Structures are given as structure tokens and as C-alpha cells.
Amino acid sequence: MTVTALIPAAGRGVRLGADEPKAFVDVCGRPMLTRAVSGVLASGVVDRVVVMVPADLVDATAALVPESVRVIAGGAERIDSVRAGLQTLTDGDPDDIVLVHDAARCLTPAAVFERVVAAAGDRYWAGAIPGIPVADTIKTVNAAGGVTGTPQRSGLRAIQTPQGFRLDVLRRAYAQNGLDDVATDDAGLVEAMGGAVRVVAGDPLAFKITTEWDLRTAERVLVAE
Ligand code: CTP
Ligand code: MG
């Protein structure tokens, strides 16, 4: 059984607002993307890595990462980037494990990869995703800002990556039509076809660098280590 990590890194990083695409922004002197790739390789549970980056940065990225890492062009939306990565796995066994892991979660500890890979190999489940309990109360609202509901917080989890699935499951999930604009994570696509997805323990360090505040937080974490 082979474990492949697909790393979507082709976003523009609009909310971060840096001059370059987000994955190429330095976190304490090293680009987010190379930190993410190093973290995946250091976990020891991944056999191969495919990175999806903006088309004009494919060659520059290949020079930044180990030779064993495949670098390809991503697409307009995250879902297009992941689909491009999946399409490279033509020689894969249906039972192989595929992890999808955001480059923007570049401080994710090895233990999270270990837990997801272990759980994703369990045939009872269609996939495994890391999640952490929610600290804030979450409300649903309508367009006017009116509160329409308050889900029980104890039953909520904030979901991170890596998300792990068997190759055949993820292929079928990504072959579905009409979901590209509604699914906000890979597990959502698997759930849409009736797959039972299991949440394992995530880690606060697997947070996604989205805004300037997140970038400063990541740098404070690294300085403190
Ligand atoms: N991503 C991607 N291809 C896209 C869009 C996003 O590979 N077309 C990747 C990002 O590079 C990131 C991950 O998906 O590693 C999660 O996306 P997000 O945090 O939203 O990053 P951006 O899309 O770059 O940021 P923003 O939405 O603020 O523009
Ligand atoms: Mg985005």
C-alpha cells in the first residue's frame, strides 16, 4: 500500500494580501510550501508527494523541493488543483491511500499524519480527517444577519488537513458533477456520495495560515520553539 500526499499550493492568497502567492511567502525565512513539504516527508508515513502550484511557478518550485517531489500546475480553484493532482496517480492501486494536505497548514505535526494514515487504511470508513473541538459557539445566520440556529457545540469539530482516503474513493468523489461550488473540503465530496468519514484528533498547530494575523502567529510559534 502506497501513501501519496497531494499538496494544493496554487492559491493566490487574496486574504493574506502578500505580493506573491501565499504558499511562496516566507514563514521565519522559509517559504510555507517548503515547510509543508518537509513536514509531510518528515512524518515518515508518506511515500510520494505531488505539489500543485501556479502554472508560472512550476519550474521555480521544482528547484525548491527534493527531486522526488513531483511539481505540477494547479487550477483556478482548490478543487481543480486537487483534481489535477489526482490525475497524475494513474499507476495507483485502488487501495492506495491519498492524503490531501493544504500547503497553508505548514506547521502540522507528524502525529496528525500518522493518525490520519492509520485511520484511512480502515476499510470500514471511506476516509479520515483531523478535527479539533470548537471553542466558540457557532451560529447559523441568514442574509440579514438574523440568527437561525445554534448547533450544540459539543457535536462540532473544526476540520483540518491532511484528509486521507483510499484512491478509488477519492477518484469517485472527484468524478461527481455539480459539487464544485459547494464542497469546501475533500471529505465533503466523499460525504456527498454517501461515504462514512471518520474524524480523528487534529492539532492546533495544523491551523491554516489565511490572514496576516495567522502568519504572525505561525512566526511566533516557530520563534518560541
Ligand atoms: N489552493 C490551490 N489552488 C487554488 C486555490 C487554493 O491549490 N486554486 C490551495 C492553497 O494554495 C492552499 C489551500 O489550497 O494551500 C487552501 O486554500 P486557501 O487557504 O483558501 O488559500 P488561497 O486560496 O491561496 O487563499 P485565499 O482564499 O485567501 O485567496
Ligand atoms: Mg482560497
Structure description:
The protein has 225 residues and is an alpha/beta fold. The chain has a single domain (3-224), classed as Alpha-Beta Complex (Spore Coat Polysaccharide Biosynthesis Protein SpsA, Chain A). The chain is 28% helix and 21% strand. It is built from seven helices and twelve strands. The protein has helices spanning 32-42, 58-62, 78-86, 110-120, 167-174, 186-192, 212-224, and strands at residues 3-8, 26-27, 30-31, 48-53, 70-73, 97-100, 127-133, 140-141, 147-149, 157-159, 163-166, 197-201. The strands form three sheets. Strands 1, 4, 5, 6, 7, 10, 11 and 12 form an eight-stranded mixed sheet that branches. A two-stranded antiparallel sheet has the order 2-3. Helix 2 links the parallel strand 4 (48-53) and strand 5 (70-73). Bound molecules: cytidine-5'-triphosphate and magnesium ion. Cytidine-5'-triphosphate binds next to helix 3.
Task: Please sum up the structure shown.
The chain has 225 residues and is an alpha/beta fold. The protein has helices at residues 32-42, 58-62, 78-86, 110-120, 167-174, 186-192, 212-224, and strands at 3-8, 26-27, 30-31, 48-53, 70-73, 97-100, 127-133, 140-141, 147-149, 157-159, 163-166, 197-201. The protein starts with a strand and ends with a helix.
